[in-house]
Structure formats: C-alpha cells, structure tokens
C-alpha cells in the first residue's frame, strides 16, 4: 500500500542523535555528531524520512511528504535567516542550529524541511505558521526542534496546508496551542513528539462554525508523549478519519481525546495513565462527534466515551499497531528531540 511501512522503536540506547534522511535526499553530508552504529531496521525507518499515516498518502498532487528534498541545504542561526529561507519559493532543507529567538510567527511556504541540528535546536518566543491565504504551506517537514514560550501557537498548520509531517519535536510553555491544525488543512502526520508544561496541546478544527473543514483535516497522531498536559490530545471538529494510535497519555488533567461536531476519530493501541476522562464524545459547547476505541490500556483512568462508526484509516494507508503495553517505555525512549536514530 504505497510502500508505507512502520517499524517499532527500540529503547533509548539505540536512539542517539542524528542525521536526517531529508538531508541525504537533498545531497547533504553526514553530521559530525551522527551515532557510530544504529540497528539497521531503525536506521532504515528514520533515515528514509518517510512518515506513517496521512502524510504518506498520494493525494492532491503529492505522493507523500518530501519537504525540501532536492533543494539547497542551508543552516540558519538567526530569526532573520530562518524567516528568509522559510519564505523563499522552491524546495529548501533548512537546518536550525542552536537557539533562535523569534518575535512572532514565521510563515513557512511549500516544499520545506526545517530540521534541528543535534540536540540543541530551539525556536523560542514565537512559532511557525505553515502557509498564508496567498502562499500555501504544502509539503513541509518539521523535525527535531524544541519549541518554547511561543507568543501564539508553537506550530500552526493552516490555510489549506496539506502533506505536512511534524516529527520528533519537543513543545512546551506556549501562549495558545502547541500544535494547531485548522482551516481546511489535510493529510498530516504528527509523530514522536513530546508535549509538556502546557494546557492546550493539539487542536484539530478551527471552530464550531467553520464548516469548510468538513471533508478535510485527515490527521494521524502516533507515538506522541502527552506528558502532563491538560487537554486537546487532540480536540477534533468535523474531521474524518482522525487516527490516534500508540500515544502515551500521562496525568492529563482535563481529558485525553475529544471528538466533537460529528468528527470521526479512531483511538487505538494507546496507553492512558492517570487520565480521569480519556475520551469525550462532545465537549464544552461543541456538539458530539463519533469515536471508535479499541485495544487501549487504561491505568487508574476513567471509562472512555464512544459513539457511532468511523471510516477506517487503513483504507488510506497501511500501518502496524504496537502492543499498547509497550507504549510507555517505547514512547518515553523515542519521543522528542535527539531521538532520531541516524
């Protein structure tokens, strides 16, 4: 099925720092801090730069998500340089080195890979917005970056952006959402990220009145670590199908997943620990959605709400669900920055 594969991560010793496949695809050379040896299967999965889930689907003129592969490889250390390259036409592989202080949102346009170098790449004080109303943010990859103290969203996927892969980042302490996907965006994968020290983690769907999102917002969330965040993991409006699998939910104060406004969400193979309300059908003033849950583990957690039927994500792409009992160890070892094994 489109050559998509999913390989299980191994515990932390095998998950050393990095060289990205997107760099190899763009002709970049290996970084000096790449690990000496990584198990072959893990290296193949990470170094191929291939997402699992909706970002892999052949649709809307894109056969998967390749980001800036084939374009120039540049390294940025300042906000001005990041803004410049992120807004240029054509493909670019943009390596973020060190800490970059922003004063607001930077617009990222089509065919970009924004990749943190090593374990210290950080964007703070602002965030990345994928696309504007006149310049689409399609075919974008964001990996291995720490996002802190954003003045608005840390990452906003908006304005019909499609084929986006958000992978192996660390997001915390923002003002609004850590990762919001909205306004008719589509075919997105959110994988192996750590969310922490924040309330509103991952919104999917702009508002109860924004019905243009119907038929869009197809997103896969897998192997993310929702580490003590309060809510929106994700909070979904209108979208179907939304696929939430093999994520680790720990001590989420308000709820885990919320499906509203007739959204269709499949929640499978996740591990909920100390989550009083793991799944809601409807939330706050939003009308009910639909949820199918299967093969999840609930430890010291409440009873999930479910309703209706949901389109199977497997009709779009192939995937493998890890044993949910392994999820806490696998996800804590593999999610976040500096965990890409190549």
TrEMBL record:
Its EC number is 4.2.2.2. Residues 69-278 form the Pectate lyase domain. Pfam families: Pectate_lyase_4. Its main location: secreted. SMART domains: Amb_all, PbH1. PANTHER family: PECTATE LYASE 18-RELATED, PECTATE LYASE 21-RELATED. This is Pectate lyase. It comes from Streptosporangium becharense.
């Amino acid at each position: 099925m489109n050559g998509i594969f999913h390989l299980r991560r191994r515990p932390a010793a095998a998950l050393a720092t990095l060289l990205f496949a997107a760099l190899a695809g763009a002709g970049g050379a290996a970084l000096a801090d790449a690990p000496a040896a990584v198990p072959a299967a893990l290296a193949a999965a990470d170094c191929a730069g291939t997402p699992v889930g909706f970002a892999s689907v052949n649709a809307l003129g894109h056969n998967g998500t390749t980001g800036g592969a084939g374009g120039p490889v540049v390294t940025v250390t300042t906000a001005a340089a990041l803004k410049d390259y992120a807004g240029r036409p054509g493909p670019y592989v943009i390596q973020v080195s060190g800490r970059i202080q922003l004063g607001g949102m930077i617009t990222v346009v089509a065919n970009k890979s924004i990749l943190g170098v090593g374990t210290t790449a950080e964007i703070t004080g602002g965030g990345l917005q994928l696309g504007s109303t006149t310049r689409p943010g399609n075919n974008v990859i964001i990996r291995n970056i720490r996002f802190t103290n954003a003045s608005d969203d840390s990452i906003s996927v908006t304005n019909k952006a499609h084929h986006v892969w958000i992978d192996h980042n660390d997001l915390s302490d923002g003002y609004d959402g850590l990762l919001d996907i909205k306004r008719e965006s589509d075919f997105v994968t959110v994988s192996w990220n750590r969310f922490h020290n924040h309330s509103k983690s991952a919104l999917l769907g702009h508002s109860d009145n924004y019905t243009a999102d119907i038929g869009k917002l197809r997103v896969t969330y897998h192997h993310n670590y929702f580490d003590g965040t309060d809510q929106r993991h994700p909070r979904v409006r209108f979208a179907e199908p939304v696929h939430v699998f093999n994520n680790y939910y720990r001590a989420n104060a308000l709820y885990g997943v919320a499906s509203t406004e007739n959204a269709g969400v499949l929640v499978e193979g996740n591990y909920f620990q100390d989550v009083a309300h793991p799944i809601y059908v409807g939330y706050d003033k939003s009308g009910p959605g639909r949820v199918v849950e299967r093969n999840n583990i609930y430890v010291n957690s409440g009873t999930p709400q479910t309703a209706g039927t949901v389109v199977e994500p497997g009709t779009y792409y192939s995937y493998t669900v890890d044993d949910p009992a392994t999820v806490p160890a696998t996800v804590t070892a593999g999610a976040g920055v500096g965990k890409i094994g190549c």
